[in-house]
Amino acid sequence: MRSVILLGKGDLAIRIGDWFLDSPEWQLDRVVPVMPEPTWTGSISQWATRNGVEHVESGDYRDIPGVNIDGWSVDLAMSVFYDKLIPESFIRKCDRIINLHNGPLPRYRGVSPINWALKNGESMHGVTIHEIAPGIDDGPIVAQAWYSIYPEIDEVRDVYGRSLAFGWALFEQTIPMLDRIEPRAQDETAATYYSTGRNAELGNRRRFTRAES
After folding, report:
1. How crowded is residue 19: how many other Cβ atoms within 10 Å of its Cβ?
2. What contacts 180, CB < 8 A, 6 or more positions away?
3. Distance (Å, rounded) from C-alpha 109 to C-alpha 21?
């Protein structure tokens, strides 16, 4: 069996964790949760405890036991909305390291991709599985799915819920053939990026609903 470390937060990460637990090909060795865990979604650390999976209480990948020892490695590291940048030193220790991003890369790199897509009046959005590189959401694309959004009626929470469904479908269809997929480089000329420093520009799209802003 091949080893997996799952980094991230929330209901989709939990669902993906269940998939790895049930898989005859993968061994889920450890979970690295986002800390502090958000209260508006499921707790992956509590899920790990219930299922007998070790987890890193600090939420920091650098605290994975043995990670700093020469020769430490993992077959697959899977990030699902993890909140820390992964440096090349950790990337090199993973045979594969991939991320599920809530945006249609190379567009909407960075934070709050759904919020920005609605702010910008987009009619389509997407989810992307990509290889993690030392930059921000700029690694080669493994798989991608697009779906409709409706800025005139959708709240952020509506699109977020939709993204979890499409993210799950993309994961479930992609991972069984991961070894056979040739990732494709992102088109840098089409890239857009949003940082936390621009959050104030989101206005009434900053939170889950416009009424909360």
Report:
1. 16
2. none
3. 30
Q: CA-CA distances (angstroms) from residue 1 to 21, 24, 25?
A: 12, 7, 5
* 147 backbone dihedrals φ, ψ, rounded to 5°: -150, 160
What's the whole-model pTM score? 0.96
What pLDDT was estimated at residue 213?
74
Residues of the chain short of pLDDT 50, as ranges, are: none
Q: How many CB atoms lie within 10 A of CB 80?
A: 26
DSSP state string for 11-74: HHHHHHHHHHHH-SSEEEEEEEE-SSPPTTS--HHHHHHHTT-EE-TT--GGGSTTTTSTT--E
Are residues 130 and 98 in contact, defined by beta-carbon separation less than 8 angstroms? yes
- Cβ atoms of 86 and 64 within 8 Å: the answer is no
Contacts of 38 (CB under 8 A, 6+ apart): 9, 10
Separation CA 99–CA 200 (nearest Å): 26
Q: Given the DSSP bridges, would you call strands 26-33 and 2-8 parallel, antiparallel or unpaired?
A: parallel
CA diameter of the chain: 53
Surface-to-core class of residue 90, CB atoms within 10 Å of its CB (0-12 exposed, 13-18 middle, 19+ buried): buried
181 Rama class: left (phi>0) / alpha (psi -120 to 50) / beta: beta
Q: What are the chain's domains?
A: 2-212 (3.40.50.170)
